[in-house]
Amino acid sequence: MTAPVSVISARGRVRAGRGVRIALNTLGIVLALIWAFPVYWMVNSALLPNVVLEKTTPTLVPFGGSFRNFQAVVSDGSFFRALGISLSIAAIVVVVCLIFAFLAALAISRFRFKGRRSFVLAVLFIQMLPAEGMFIAQYKLMSNLGLLNSIIGVSIIYIAAVVPFTIWMLRGFVAGIPADLEEAAMVDGLSRTQAFLRITFPLLAPGLVASGIYAFLQAWNEFTVALVLLDADNKTLPLWLRGFIQQSASSSIDWGQVMAASTLVAVPVIIFFMFVQGRMTSGLVSGAVKG
After folding, report:
1. CA distance 284 to 273
2. Per-residue pLDDT reduced to its tens digit, 102-157
3. How far is CA 270 from CA 135, 217, 274, 276, in A?
4. CATH number, span 72-279
């Protein structure tokens, strides 16, 4: 006895859906491997001596590799000084940006006040200004304030550059949470502050983490402002990496040490992201309301 036509068509749709999922998963894996290969090649090259890297035949697996390149990079101690400066600047930028951007996003999303639209337009306009066009003004400002060649001075410039876009990011997260949730909590006896902290704030965790990641990456990778405001004795990691490459190029470039230095610059970013990604995921399911 043959199966009904409807059952056969349903089985065909199921098989077609499985085929599409398999194809999309395969495509996703291939794209992920393509994206991850440069990172793997950097780490792989950091473990190999320069004589192996200069061969015409590439070495895809670092058999017989060692950590000598890493030892050579950190032996003079300048790396740890640059690491401390970059971490200090990044920490200041993330904390201050999140505080200012969170309060500003909350104000323009939850309250109606005179000049609100002008403030939003000003945020967008500031974000459109080219950073290179403000280098001279920034240098003169920091010089008049006595903040040249200082962590505070660089942090102020970074904060001014990162805050506008961070406000715009958080504004979308705040506007996406209905104000009715807070009103319902206030009906249940909570104050406005308690309702915000218990109901709305946990739901904003993904936005705060995403904004923090953006601020951290901007402060960590920035090169030109640090080059203008800092001298040779105080370097962030991007400036230190450039100086390391120039020093290596004075004789012959040791690509193993260059790749080891690049890996060391990338490691704190990876650690930071691994630390916050769990909180980004937990924030998506926290702050649940009663049904």
Report:
1. 16
2. 888 888 887 777 877 887 788 778 777 777 788 888 899 999 999 999 999 999 99
3. 30, 11, 6, 10
4. 1.10.3720.10
